[in-house]
Every structure is written in structure tokens, then in C-alpha cells.
Amino acid sequence: MPLDSNHLIGKEALLLLLHKEDQLPEKLRQLDWKYCKGKVGSMDGQKVVAAVETAAKNQGIIKSSLYRETHALYHAILEAMSGVTRGNNQIGTLLRTVGLQFAIVRGNPYKDKEEGEWIAVALYGTIGAPVKGLEHEAIGLGINHI
Amino acid sequence: MPLDSNHLIGKEALLLLLHKEDQLPEKLRQLDWKYCKGKVGSMDGQKVVAAVETAAKNQGIIKSSLYRETHALYHAILEAMSGVTRGNNQIGTLLRTVGLQFAIVRGNPYKDKEEGEWIAVALYGTIGAPVKGLEHEAIGLGINHI
Amino acid sequence: MPLDSNHLIGKEALLLLLHKEDQLPEKLRQLDWKYCKGKVGSMDGQKVVAAVETAAKNQGIIKSSLYRETHALYHAILEAMSGVTRGNNQIGTLLRTVGLQFAIVRGNPYKDKEEGEWIAVALYGTIGAPVKGLEHEAIGLGINHI
Amino acid sequence: MPLDSNHLIGKEALLLLLHKEDQLPEKLRQLDWKYCKGKVGSMDGQKVVAAVETAAKNQGIIKSSLYRETHALYHAILEAMSGVTRGNNQIGTLLRTVGLQFAIVRGNPYKDKEEGEWIAVALYGTIGAPVKGLEHEAIGLGINHI
Amino acid sequence: MPLDSNHLIGKEALLLLLHKEDQLPEKLRQLDWKYCKGKVGSMDGQKVVAAVETAAKNQGIIKSSLYRETHALYHAILEAMSGVTRGNNQIGTLLRTVGLQFAIVRGNPYKDKEEGEWIAVALYGTIGAPVKGLEHEAIGLGINHI
Amino acid sequence: MPLDSNHLIGKEALLLLLHKEDQLPEKLRQLDWKYCKGKVGSMDGQKVVAAVETAAKNQGIIKSSLYRETHALYHAILEAMSGVTRGNNQIGTLLRTVGLQFAIVRGNPYKDKEEGEWIAVALYGTIGAPVKGLEHEAIGLGINHI
């Protein structure tokens, strides 16, 4: 059941963002891992959620016809947002804004095939006052079975 | 006042962990940025805080004789923990354990020298049941002025 | 994809507790839904989590060899606890204690078979000061795909 | 001071919802317990609060001229909402919606008459994406002295 | 129903602490308002709760034989603690300690006698690392109907 | 490093509000401590943040051209709001409104000059239903190094 240190789904999602990579490493694509990237800037939490969900559905990362996949993704997004907001998932209501890139990765990070597929949502960018420059970096990662 | 995209303090702290680097890039060391790395595994939140604080003091990242530096570091640690725990900063009380590496970086990530020093605390590792393998990855990042 | 109003997994878990039933209705047992019940009283959050997890594993509700099943159950337990504690998942650290019954149900509550299995954890009992009688009722329900 | 197991105010409120009952059991009506039921669907937390408050006032469960009664009810509603939202009391800002039924019950659930009146607010229904069918059940219960 | 600006229960509780007063103003004692003061220092949240509860019972501010009074006090204490801890009610588990004075006041702060009695719990002191001097001030106030 | 009991920055900020004082004591003005006061009433959390930030900038308490000063102030405001809202920093979304006075004080509350400047934000007023009179008092205090 241990994580496979060559297939760390969270780390791969984070590196897609931090290195501005366009794709996952070759070995993971061969394993048929799915992924996509996107951007969202907003003071409105629901727009962040929507941007990630829409990308995941449009890029075929999840099946939009299955609620269980949307449910898995949704909770991964909220967990990633709690890293960015450091706990409360509030943005504009506290007079702050985010400028984020996101990466979504789907695959099995465990040595045991039985563990099946998991989904990772990584967010990286800035959070701060709604004034250019009054901001610092933030990161978040949510991981869920799917 | 904007962030200098070559001196992103959060990103540098995260890359120290994700790439298992031993040190910051040459250009940042020349700017006299300080940093250190360490590890901590525990079900006890206060041990995570203590491990990061002790490393920061022992490695000279902060002056232990000044409360304002301890205060800046402390809040950065709590923010990083909220990413790892996804919001509540509770570990063992919810029957889970963490195995984390941490990186602490101190320097000025802004184009304007007046912005002075900032501190970033990054945590990366696993969180899960207190049983080997029943775990997934987690990340957290806290950034504060110091 | 809609919920099937005859197979509401959360409602079934709650009725097991509120009516002190010993088993699920016949129609659900014929659908091979799994369930179990138990009790736990503690000031210690991790004991509540452990009691529910242990019952689920011992009664064959989840496979203990698969982390994805433990992960699904764990988050359902935490969600149920947040109902009981009304948000913070803290018990003894705030000088209160709980006396709870729990029910765990596994099955597909949706009309579409593709939605697969879900798990519901219901908690019902009392929360209050660690003195007999200084308490009121509390409830919690967590639902997750598994 | 113990709870009277025949007069469990939280359980009665929950059964009104789960069994789609129109009224409390005869024995409780004879004790002059008050109750009402209603429905609310919204992405907006304040509309949930308002719907429950308005019903309680219109049905004479609380006296709208006394702040202490509004205060007791308000905190019971927030506690019930924290069960439904599993901790953060946020709905639309996280791109989700609720479809809830609510029951409010007022009476004395303790053996000792001196304990006076208490109020229970129970919420039961669904929470999920603002798309029909992408939802699961949720429950919440708040109890307060009044 | 408005608050009576001469009988502000929260303000009176705060002034007892900030001015190191031993008693409430004469006019409030004539109205038979009850109050007491005390101290508690701890890394353990439950000791803070216990210290305030014990003082309230021993000084006759609340009747220990009535759960409704303990319940009203308990929630006022938790609300005051959330001000001191700024949201999470965690102390030692996050490696910090508090040194607090507390004041409890009971009376009717409203113009309308029908509003009955209310209770205010005020906490004032320091919070910080478990090292002398590494601390700053904190305050909290909880108010409840009783 | 200990706090100087004659220069308690949080206490001074609170007394400005509770005593409706117009200015800090003479001894603190001679030490060149800065301060200002203001009012804000809203159901909207971001308006509370904005009112305090605007006053601090307009009155010269912080330099608006430095993000590190805005950052220090912002976190002090959020901490003060968490006292007023008792944890969740939500106002109108939970159908409640605040009527607050605020005081901001900047100075060094420690015996050691090296501790430099700190900022305190105190909020005092009422919170309650958006109906005149359905409200009670609330307080909050945030303190940060600057």
C-alpha cells in the first residue's frame, strides 16, 4: 500500500506549476495519468472552484456525468483552497484577491494497483489586497481517491 | 512593490523540498538569503512547531532573543500547518500523523528594497493514519514579514 | 444521477440510530448494502475515530488492506464529528465529553448504478460537561464516495 | 438533571424530518411542546437563517419581541448549519447549494422542570453542486436553552 | 429591546480586567448584578474552561445544579476563548501558552426587563510561546442569555 | 524582552474605545506612539477591513507604499474580526450585522527597544440581527509586529 516514490501525485502536480511545465513526465504519461493546467484570478471563491471544475471536465480529467467524480474533485479543490487561504476558504469577503495557476493530475500514486485512481489539485500563485503588488505567494494541495 | 519573479521566496522554499536540494540557488545565496531544512514526524502539533522553531534558531535564520522574529516565524509555521492539515491544525487528536520535511527561507522577494525581509516556511510530506502506507501527500506554505 | 428516494444512505444510517434498529430494511439488505452499529464514549477525539474505524474493519464494511477505503471512511467520520462538535472537532481539549452511538452504511444511494458505492457515518448521542446530566443531544453525518 | 429519554428534543426534531411527520407525538403536544416545519433551498447562508427565523416567529415558536429568544434560536440555527456544511457555514461562496427541510421544536427535554425550555433546530436535505443530482444528504442539529 | 448604554455588560466585564478593579460600579451592584474575577495560566484549553466554570459556581454566579446555566456559561467561555486564540480555541497543541485574568458578570444589559439575565465572560492577558516574554496581549468576550 | 506593563499596546487600544477617549495618554504620545480611531457599521466583512485600512493609511499610521506594513495591519484586522465574530469572520452571510468602533495603535510595548514597532487593532461594538436592538456587545483585538 505504500506510496510509490516515483509516482508522487501531489509532487507532480506541484512541479507542473512551479516549473511552468506543460506536461507530466514521459513515464507518467505512459502510465496513462491524466492532467491539465489552467489559471484563475478572482476575489470570489466560487469562481476558483468553477474554473478548476470546468477545466477538469473539459479536459476529460473527470467524467461530468458521474457525481462521484465531481464529488472527489470538489473536495480536493476545497482542500487546496484551504492551503491558499490558510484555513477559512474566504477571499473577497475578507477584502483579498487571488491570482492562481492550477494543475490537476489523476493517476495511481501507490505501489498497489488495487489502490486505483486518485486526484490531486494544486494551486499556486498570489494572495493579497486587491491592489497590484500588495500580495505574497500561496500554495495549496488537495488529494482524494476517485 | 511587486514581487520579483526571480526571487520568489515561497517557490524557493518549496523547491528545496520537492527537489531534495541542499541549498538555495547561487544568486540567492549571494543576496545573503538565509535558509535551512529539516524533518519532523509526529502526531503532536506542538512537536511540528517546535522542530521548525528550533531549526530556525539553531541555524541562525531568526534571532532567538527577539520576540518579533519568533512571532513572525510562529505565524508562518501555523499557516503552513493549516495547508498540511487542510484547515484545522489538528493531527493526533483526529487520529492522524504526519511525516514532514520543512524548509525555511529568509530574504526579500520584492523588487523594492524597502520591503525588507520576509520569511517562508514550507512543509511537504505525508499525512494519514498512524499505520505505514495509509497516507497521502500534503503541502503547506506560510509567508510573513519579519 | 439523482438520489433514489427509497435508498437514502444518510437517512438509513440515521434511522438505525434513532430507532435503535438492529438492521437495515430488508430491501436494502437484498441490495447487499452493508452496515454496522456501535458505541463510543470519550473526551478524546481520536478514540471516536478509532472506534468507528475498528468497527468498520471488523465488520467487513471496508477492506482494511486498501487505503482508499480507509481514506473514504476517515473523511466521513471527520464530517460526522464536525456535526457533533458543531465545527471544530474538539472534545476534551474544551472540557467536554461525548456519549455516542454510531452507524455505518455502505451502498449506492443513486438511481444510476455507475455512481457505485458510497459510505455514510452517522453519530447520535450526547455532548456536554464531564458530569452526568450536564449534556444535550448532538448529531452528525458524513457521506463519501468509496 | 438528566435528559428524559422519552422527551428527547433533538430526536423529536429529527424524526419530524426523517419521517415526514406533520406533528409531534401526542404526549409531547399534551406537554405543550411547540414545533413547526418548513423548507428552504438556497446558495445563500443568510436565506437559510432567515427562513428558519421567520417560520419560528410566524408560528409562534419564539417571541419576536424578545431578543433573548431570537438569540437562542440564532445560535441553534448556526449550529445546525455547521452540521450541514460540515464546519464552515459557507454555501454559495464555495459553489454549492442546499435543499433543506427544517424542524424547530421547543420544550423541556430534562427530567427536572427547573431546566426550563430548550429549542432544537434540525436541518435535513441535500448539499451539492448547483446542478440537479450532483448532491448528497446532509444533516444538522443545534440545541440551545431559551 | 435596545441595550442600555449605562448597563453594558461586556464593557463592564472588560473594565474589571483592564482597570484591575475589584468590583462593579455601585449602580450595578444596586441592581443586583453578580460578578467575580480570577486568574488562570495554562497551555491546556480545558483548564481555562474549568477555572472560569469553577469560579462562577463557587462565587454563586451560576447555579451548578442547573444545566441550563452551565450551558449558557460554557458557550460564553468558548466564545471568549476564540477571541484570545483568534479562532481555533487551541493553545498547547500549537505550542503556545496563555496567562489570563477573567471576569464574569451577570445581569440585564437591556432597557426592557423582559430580556432577563445575560452573562458575560471576559478574558484578558497574554498569549505566546511557553517562554517568559515571548508573548503579546489578547482579549476575548463571550455573551449569552442565561 | 518582556512587555512593559506601562506600555501595553492592546490595553491602550481597548481603553481608547471603552472610555471614548480621543487620544492616547500623554506619556505614550511623547514616545511618539501613533493612533487613530474610527467607526464602521456593515453586514459586509470586506467593508470592515477596508474602513480600518483606510483610516490607518489616511492618518499616517502605516505607509501605504509598503506592502509589509499593509500586511501587518491586515492580519491584525482579521484577528480582531475573529474576536468579534467568534471565530469564523462571517457577518452578513450569516444574517448578522456589526456596528463597531475601532482604534489602531502603533508603538513598542516591550522593554527592549530592539523589539521595534508593533500594531494593535481593537474593535468594540455590537453584533446581531439586522434589526435595531437585536444585538449584544462584541470585542476583538489583533496584535502584530510591523
Automatic annotation (TrEMBL), chains A, B, C, D, E, F:
GO terms for molecular function: mRNA binding. It holds the Pfam family HutP. GO terms for biological process: L-histidine metabolic process; positive regulation of gene expression. InterPro entries: Regulatory_HutP (IPR015111), Regulatory_HutP_bacillales (IPR023552), Regulatory_HutP_sf (IPR036482). Keywords: Activator, Histidine metabolism, RNA-binding, Transcription, Transcription regulation. Gene3D superfamilies: Hut operon regulatory protein HutP (3.40.1510.10). Belongs to the HutP family. Antiterminator that binds to cis-acting regulatory sequences on the mRNA in the presence of histidine, thereby suppressing transcription termination and activating the hut operon for histidine utilization. HAMAP family: HutP. Homohexamer. This is Hut operon positive regulatory protein. The gene is hutP.
